[in-house]
Amino acid sequence: MAGAPLRIELSTEEAGERLDLVLHQRFPQFSRARLQEWIKRGRVRVNGVSRRASYLVRVGEAVEVEPAGPAPLHAAPEQILLTVLYEDQDVIAIDKPAGMVVHAGAGVHSGTLVNALLHRFGSLSRTAGELRPGIVHRLDRYTSGVLLVAKNDAAHQRLAEQFASRRVEKTYLALVHGSVKQDRARIEKPIARDPRQRVRMTTRVARGRAAWSEYRILRRFERFTLLEVRIGTGRTHQIRVHLASIGHPVVGDRPYGAHAKIARQPTLARYFLHAHRIKFAQPSTSQPVTIESPLAPELEAWLKHLAC
To answer: For residue 55, what are the CA distances in angstroms to 29, 36, 204?
Structure first.
């Protein structure tokens, strides 16, 4: 259902910014994806004219936004290639590629991991709702690696309890900018939504959710450091924001300060973060299970090029 039109006049500080970014800053209650969807549907007008999301606004321009409800979402099976790392009567472990969204949301209605899972496995746990069958936890869109899926409701509940009580051990591989000084360290900084850029998280506000990450150095390069990172909490963007907070953003992670281009290196169309290993108790037997995902091929190739 559409809401009442929203009207703003653009300020000097906003001149030259993208239209979708300005709207997200002015109306943080709406996701950027939702605003982009409205722009595509002609529900946003600048001085009475529909513009693209990338339009660079000018001072004094009047913008009118006609809010609308989200497009109806339906998790439908789609024939999409999946790599299965592990499967038993309760659990599936998928090797998620970078770029794949886990489940549908504003602006994303198909091509998700859920769509692929429904095609390959049919019935999955419904504990998380009709749009997220089997989904116990998530990985960021541009993070690759191992992700667990519950086949049935009982398994989902037991896995969720393990995640909530922090009995699931999650280990990542991350390549960061700069030379990290300590061979091992623990980062304990609460994480909250960035009040200025709502698509980002931050450690710089007084109030936030407790979070800790531990890392150890696997390899040093001239301008980079390869880390193994273990997290005890699962906050949004946790590893990315924690490493950026100590001055070592993940390679390719431009929202958190990584360089857009790196001399003598090919372009990396994602960030260098990979969910390498997960340990949990099998839901029915309580036996320990460890699953590993090899470093994504594009990251392996980028690392080899760096070492040349």
So the answer is: 21, 12, 31
Q: Of residues 20, 140, 194, 253, which has the active-site annotation?
A: 140
Catalytic site includes residue 88: no
Q: Is the pLDDT of residue 108 over 80?
A: no
DSSP conformation class of 55: P
Kindly report, as residue ranges, where domains of CATH 3.30.2350.10 are found in the chain: 73-165, 166-286
Amino acid at position 68, single letter: A
Token digits for 207? 């109030």
pLDDT at 156: 95
Per-residue pLDDT reduced to its tens digit, 126-180: 888 888 899 999 999 999 999 999 999 999 999 999 998 999 999 999 999 999 9
Split at pLDDT 50, 70, 90, the class of 26 is confident
Pairing state of beta strands 169-177 and 273-281? antiparallel
Among 3.40.30.10, 3.30.2350.10, 3.20.20.30, 3.40.50.1000, name the CATH number for the domain at 166-286.
Answer: 3.30.2350.10
Tell me if 240 sits within 8 A of 202, measured CB to CB.
no
Query: Architecture of 73-165 per CATH?
Result: 2-Layer Sandwich (3.30)
Burial class (CB in 10 A: 0-12, 13-18, 19+), 262: middle
C-alpha span between 109 and 261 (Å, rounded): 31
pTM of the model: 0.77
